[in-house]
Design brief:
This is Pilus assembly protein CpaB. Residues 41-103 form the SAF domain. It holds the Pfam family SAF. The chain is an alpha+beta fold. Helix content is 23%, strand content 29%.
Length: 242
Amino acid sequence: MNSRQRRGVVLLVVSAVCAVAAFAGVLAVVNDARSEVGEKVTAYELSADVPAYQQIGSANIRQIRVPSRWLPDTAVRDLGQVQGKIAAVALKKGSLLQTDMVAARPRLRPGQMEIAIMIDAETGVAGKITPGAKVNIFATFAGRKDTDPDTSRIIVAAAQVIDVGEIKAFDKNADAQRLSTEGVPITFALDAEDAQRVAYAESFAEHVRLALVAPGDTSAPPDSARDYTLAGDSGSGGGGRP
């Protein structure tokens, strides 16, 4: 072997050693990064926006893999943690699903009962009022005599909605006075007195409407604003009692 061949062999050996060293360096960096990131675990994020009080299910959740060290303690790791629960607030697509984002569906408290009524879909109920929401229930009554004013009343304030059914067609023969052809069954959790008011209004009021109460609002309408007549409004510039 001449000197040129020896130099070639030496260069080849040096190149191989450098390649091995470079590979070892890359491997060390990767291992170090893995040790810093940690093991990846299963978590869940929202695949679509979820309105407040809407039920959370597989249709709006997708599974992701996240490094465990980056995952907060409140992250949902098992879908059983949210089964049958609803969004506590409006949730955005792409948000990491966490236990403090959901709440149990509303349940009856002692002394309460369920009562369901059909509400005209055209009054803005469909898609806006969901289980867990609170609403003020309005009813409009015609005057008993020709000289009596028509009246609008808040018959129940802050009624809790526990279920919203599917839109259905009204029976026109049974309820010819309705302007809408479709309605939504809404179920409330009410005490006996408020349930009586709602049942009476559905049977005898010309119209029953719901007004959504802002989440977190605990203020009740003042007594002076619960009844309204056009004559009272014209006479005093505000709500009036019949």
